[in-house]
Write a structure and sequence with these properties.
- This protein is α+β, with helices and mostly antiparallel strands and 148 residues long.
- Helices cover 20% and strands 11% of the residues.
- The longest helix has 7 residues.
- The two termini are 23 Å apart.
- Pfam families: CxxCxxCC (PF03692).
- It comes from Shewanella frigidimarina (strain NCIMB 400).
C-alpha cells in the first residue's frame, strides 16, 4: 500500500510526482466558469475546455496544454491559496484548508472508478466549449454539490 504522504508532507515540500498524484482527475478545473461582475459570485458551466476528454476526464494534450490553451492554469503549492474557484472536492484545495482526501479519491481507492461511480467527475456531463454560443446558457450546479 502507498504511503499516505499527503498526511505527513506539507504541500510545499511535496515532490512533483507527489503533487501531481494528488489530482483526482475529476476534470472540474477544465470547466469554464463565469464570475458575476456585480456580485463576484462564481458559476460553473458544463462547457469544458476543448482539450478535455469527456470519457476519461483527462486532458488530451496535458504535457503541452499551455501551447494550445495559454490561459490554462497550472495549480501549484505557490498559487493554491489564490485559486478560490477550485471546487471544494479538489484534493489540492482540501489539503490546503486542512481537510483530508475524500473516500473516493484515487490515492485511497487505487483507481478513478469510485470517483466516477460517485458522480464526482465531469465524465459524461460536459459539452465542448467550441460548440457553445453563450456560456450563460451552460451554468450548472453539480460541480459544487458533490463534496463528501
Amino acid at each position: 500500500m502507498m504511503t499516505q504522504f499527503w498526511i505527513t508532507t506539507p504541500l510545499e515540500k511535496m515532490t512533483p510526482e507527489q503533487w501531481e498524484s494528488l489530482c483526482d482527475g475529476c476534470g472540474k478545473c477544465c470547466l469554464n466558469k463565469i464570475i458575476d461582475d456585480e456580485t463576484d459570485e462564481l458559476y460553473y458551466t458544463n462547457a469544458a475546455c476543448h482539450l478535455l476528454d469527456n470519457d476519461t476526464c483527462g486532458c488530451r494534450r496535458y504535457p503541452n496544454r499551455f501551447t494550445y490553451v495559454p490561459e490554462c492554469t497550472s495549480i501549484t503549492p505557490e498559487n493554491i491559496a489564490e485559486l478560490t474557484w477550485l471546487p471544494d472536492s479538489c484534493a489540492y484545495r482540501r489539503l490546503h484548508v486542512g481537510k483530508g482526501l475524500p473516500s473516493w479519491h484515487p490515492l485511497l481507492t487505487g483507481n478513478k472508478e469510485a470517483m466516477h461511480a460517485a458522480g464526482i467527475s465531469v465524465q459524461g456531463k460536459t459539452v465542448n466549449e467550441m460548440k457553445v454560443k453563450y456560456l450563460e446558457d451552460c451554468i450548472v450546479l453539480w460541480p459544487m454539490l458533490d463534496v463528501e
